[in-house]
Design brief:
Blueprint: H1 17-25, H2 34-47, H3 52-65, H4 71-75, H5 79-86, H6 95-113, H7 118-123, E1 131-132, H8 146-158, H9 165-174, E2 178-179, H10 188-194
Parallel strand pairs: 1-2
């Protein structure tokens, strides 16, 4: 007799193969690669005002449109690239969000050039290790924290856009800085073990 897989209680996830695969394989996995963290921050910025499934459905198109989120290439985008992006129906066409992605690439490169590394800098806001929240199954979702507020302020101070505390908290959840898989979710314990080292 097959046992039921218990997942976090995200609205609209149950039975959605794309959403379930993201939850099962990616969400909450500790990400330490600087470029990958910048990509996730950009995508969370594009999510502002939208649902994450909207971004998931368009993620391949985003990769194609933004040169696989190569910050060197994105930082060099000019007017022609902005026009190309604004006419690309495969992505979210928002002048402000596109500009934020381009300027964010430049800031990312400035951080790297200054001797800092993006990943350790971001992880410093959680003391270098994932926060284990231990939310109970069915609890109301957390939308921000003291750490997300601090990270948001620091990102804004460097010039990043679309990085308010709520967006940053979602980013922290996605990149494993916070383990917000609920206590009964089948991914909670494996993700917790990844942060124990």
């Amino acid at each position: 007799m097959a046992t039921e897989t218990i997942r976090c209680t995200w609205p609209g996830m149950n039975g959605n193969a794309l959403y379930e695969a993201y939850h099962d394989a990616e969400w909450g996995m500790p990400e330490r690669d600087s470029r990958a963290l910048w990509e996730k921050l950009v995508l969370d910025g594009f999510q502002a005002g939208l649902s994450w499934i909207t971004i998931l459905k368009k993620r391949e198109a985003f990769h194609a449109a933004f040169d696989d989120f190569d910050p060197v290439k994105v930082a060099a985008y000019g007017a022609a690239d902005r026009m190309r992006l604004m006419t690309d129906a495969g992505i979210i066409r928002s002048n402000a969000k596109i500009d934020a992605a381009i300027s964010g690439a430049k800031i990312f490169l400035e951080i790297q050039a200054s001797g800092d590394t993006f990943s350790p800098w971001l992880w410093s806001f959680v003391g270098g290790r994932p926060i284990q929240t231990g939310h109970r199954h069915g609890d109301l979702a957390t939308v921000s924290s003291a750490e997300s507020i601090a990270m948001s302020k620091a990102l804004k101070a460097k010039g990043f856009k679309f990085c308010g505390p709520v967006i940053v908290y979602a980013f922290m959840q996605a990149t494993g800085m916070v383990n917000d898989h609920t206590d009964r979710c089948f991914r909670h314990t494996p993700i917790k073990a990844l942060g124990a080292g």
